[in-house]
Amino acid sequence: MASNALHLFPSRFSSILRCNLTSSFSINPSKMTRRLAVSTRRTSSMTATGENKSQPLEQERVSLKNFFDQAKDLVTSDVGPPHWFSPLDCGHPLHNSPLLLFLPGIDGTGLGLIMHHQKLGKIFEVLCLHIPPKDRTPFTVKLVERTIRSEHHRSPNRPIYLVGESLGACISLSVASRNPDIDLVLILANPATSFSRSPLQPILPLLQFMANLPNHSLPHVVSSTAGAMADLDKGVGVGAELLLTSFDPSLLLYYATALHNSNLQVLADILPIQTLLWKLEMINSASPYANSRLHAVKAQTLILSSGRDPLLPSQKEGLRLQRLLANCEICTFQDCSHFLFLEDAFDLVTVIKQVGVYRRSKERDFVSDYIPPSPSELRTLRDNNRWVILSQPRWWINIMSPVMLSTLADGTIVRGFAGIPSEGPVLHLWEQKGIHLRGIAHPMMFMKLKQGNLVELPFSDYFRLMGAVPVSGKNFFKLLSTKSHILLYPGGIREALHRKGEAYMLFWPERSEFVRMAARFGAKIVPFGTVGEDDFFDILLDYEDQMKIPFLKKYIDALSDEVGKLRTTVDGEVGNQDVYFPGILPKYPGRFYYFFGKTIETDGRKQELRDRQKAQELYLQVKSEVENCIAYLQEKRESDPYRSLVSRLLFQARHGFTSEVPAFDLD
């Protein structure tokens, strides 16, 4: 849990040149009022050096009203069989972006991702499938198959993403099972593979009966169904209630509660009762077909399950699919309803980045495939993790009052970030100057095992979102070569999970692991030390204690084997990379102190530092500087009159909670 690290900064920055959209073709331009286009190829963006590069993704707010506006345009100009269209809202993607095909649910409009078009369009080539209401093409598997085979032939090394919602998820699974040789990534929202267990099953015969009545518009059917269900037994009544409440952001809620709503006719045009029955028949056949072929699905799969889906048992179905599919993980959204993609609180691009399923080639590249967090994602990150001091809203930072020190070029120690190249750490660095630190982390932060002792670590999604990469020489080289700002912990997990009495001790390898590579790219090295963990908790059970307890020893050995051991060729304590979780006792909160030492330049020393002896001397100098940072903080905090939380609160009660709490005097 120690935080003694190095920051490595590039010597210069590359500019970003974005290309403009060259052309598009509209559908029935005399009638279109929103941004839709047929499938086209668009130019891509790249850096001046030809590298994949991205800006943080931010989008204008899109509401459900946009869904109805564009659906009206589509229905008005509806002709022909199912076809693909590319929303103009998507803009133009990054260089060599993967293709994303959206397969809609029961509505068939293809507009289910409308709230995500702008952000998706910057990292994917997006095509959406539109199925006209009067079309009766069964299942559409062959249509999707032809598309992915054509795209695979055109770009065999590029993955194809199939994003399916309910019925579209069944189609995605079926296509994947029939094409195991194509690199597919499936993102499935509330798959309808559980349709046989849907609470709506009891009312399906009633819908079929209502469809034969003279007035058989969908609003009339739903309204009549609601009245009829009130007189039936409890089980069927529950089904009617589910029918009326399941479409929280869309469709049936409007029929039940807003029969005079201007969107009513649009909904009736999208899903005439005969079309609804046809779609239900499709699901009824698609669900068992997809279930019978799950064993053949080898594609990487992400299941998105809603916790409040009254149409389908989505949570249980997600867990079932996770067990049956070869390469599957699941994310559950407890407060979301059936139409997950239309929920205001749901952000598909953020989920893709957090889970780590975005890639541009057969294998994921943690460096070049990384998409920086958007300002809204950073705000959400802060709000969801208020106890992480460096990522907090201003009021929380004011209460905890961490002390930030840095060193100017002349050796003067100052409060704040003035001495750090390009300013500031972690989130504040990004918000103020657009510079972002990429942490090098233990591989277990990226592991997701279905079975075994390793559970997904808290906040691992956030580490991935912020650009952490698994520790390796290859990833370190790539980060340096792309002029990234790197957060490096040479002590690794042995230093982080230290034993009793080892607080603030460094466990670095004897020989340099990073100096010569840093010098190759002229990186700046900033020694960095943190003090304060011992003011927040004491270690009760450390590694030595737990290894004396048989069942804990067995657990540690099994866990370490699962995640893999690093530095196995290194002798001594540095090579002891066993993974364990110390037992801790919280204490009354103290204060954290951060000290960035004087920047060490390597620019212009490439030839000099090729000599192993010279590199070793610089390595020892860096280590000594980190130790000096820690020792300085340990000594100076003893004279800090506001080290305790109570003293800080009293100070702010007198001077205001927005006031900066003083610390010790700087030499």
UniProtKB/TrEMBL annotation:
Record-level Gene Ontology MF annotations: aminopeptidase activity; diacylglycerol O-acyltransferase activity
Region (Disordered): 38-57
Coiled-coil regions, chain positions: none
Source superkingdom: Eukaryota
Keywords, comma-separated and alphabetical: Acyltransferase, Aminopeptidase, Hydrolase, Protease, Transferase
InterPro entries, sorted: AB_hydrolase_fold, DAGAT, Hydrolase_4
Domain Serine aminopeptidase S33, chain residue ranges per copy: 153-343
GO-annotated cellular components: membrane
Residue stretches of biased makeup (Polar residues): 40-57
Pfam entry (one): Hydrolase_4
GO biological process terms, semicolon-separated: triglyceride biosynthetic process
Assigned protein family: Belongs to the diacylglycerol acyltransferase family.
Name of the protein in question: Putative diacylglycerol acyltransferase, serine aminopeptidase, S33, alpha/Beta hydrolase
